Amino acid sequence: MAPPHGHGLDELILTVLSQSTNDRNRDVAFLRLRARFDSWEAVRDAPVEEIEEAIRPGGISKVKSVRIQAILDAIGDPLDLSWMKDAPVAESQRFLVALPGVGRKTAACVLLFAYGLRDVPVDTHVSRVGTRLGLFRPGAPFEELHDAMLDLTPRGQEHEFHINLLRHGRRTCHAQRPKCPECDLRRMCPWPASSRPTSS
Ligand code: SF4
After folding, report:
1. Sign of dihedral through CA atoms 168, 174, 175, 177?
2. Ranges of the chain with pLDDT below 50
3. Which residue of 125, 172, 177, 182 sits with most ligand 1 atoms within 8 Å of its CB, as the best mutation to test the pocket?
4. Fewer CB near the last or first residue (10 Å), C or N of the chain?
5. Ligand 1 atom closest to Cα of 195?
6. 132 pocket-lining for ligand 1 (C-beta < 6 Å)
7. 75-123 per-position pLDDT tens digit
8. Which residue among 186, 194, 198, 199 has the greatest number of ligand 1 atoms within 8 angstroms of its CB, and so is best to mutate?
9. How far apart are alpha carbons 16 and 191 in whole angstroms?
10. Residues 6+ apart with CB under 8 A from 152
11. What is the Å distance from ligand 1's center to 152 Cα?
12. DSSP string, the chain
């Protein structure tokens, strides 16, 4: 499991870039942005078209470029989130979700991956797998899912639990055709048997 890397602002922008694309295209967009501008202040102050051009491989670059600059503007000076390392998690969460277009999942990515703090991102895979396994109330909004996820995650296991559910969703518990016949969790999974594919 990768240790916290300590770069909250990088994680925040990376998470914005991850919307509606895959990890590879997200990373290409991020690296192009970092290569073209030597600081986040330079990204904030550049013409928006230059940001859009740099992050184009990540998709919906028009929307993301505007959002990135709005976030950097809203953070103000200094452009730095390292104070979160020593702040109460709830205070940092409040700060992050008040930024334009930032929700609980993005906030949790920053707090957990950058600083190793107690928060757990619930993305579409984690939400689907957790709901099928009966960990979440079906149809619960993402705010509730994050609170529930935190309640059931043992302290110190935040990163591992998130990654395990995410991988299970990507590799086995697919949205359309979950591989139930070969799933290790099949015996404990309450997802209605009538919905599950059966082995032939
Ligand atoms: S048994 Fe099927 S629905 Fe349940 S966790 Fe496994 S793959 Fe997902």
Report:
1. negative
2. none
3. 172
4. C
5. 3
6. yes
7. 998 999 999 999 999 999 999 999 999 999 999 999 999 999 999 999 9
8. 186
9. 32
10. 135
11. 19
12. -PPP-S-HHHHHHHHHHTTTS-HHHHHHHHHHHHHH-SSHHHHHHS-HHHHHHHTGGGS-HHHHHHHHHHHHHHH-SS---GGGGGS-HHHHHHHHHTSTT--HHHHHHIIIIIH--S-----HHHHHHHHHTTSS-TT--HHHHHHHHHHHSPTT-HHHHHHHHHHHHHHTS-SSS--GGG-TTGGG--S-GGGS----
Nearest CA to ligand 1 atom 8: 173
Q: Is the CB of 173 under 6 A from ligand 1?
A: yes
Find the 167 Cα to ligand 1 centroid distance in Å.
Answer: 13
Residue 178 CB coordination number (10 Å): 22
71 closest CA partner among 121, 9, 27, 19? 9
Residue with tokens 């942005």: 33
Check residue 199 and give its pLDDT: 65
**CB 81 less than 6 A from any atom of ligand 1:** no
So what's the pLDDT on residue 171?
95
| Tokens 């990135």 sit on residue | 68
- Which three-class secondary structure string do you get for 89-131? HHHHHHHHHCCCCCCHHHHHHHHHHHHCCCCCCCCHHHHHHHH
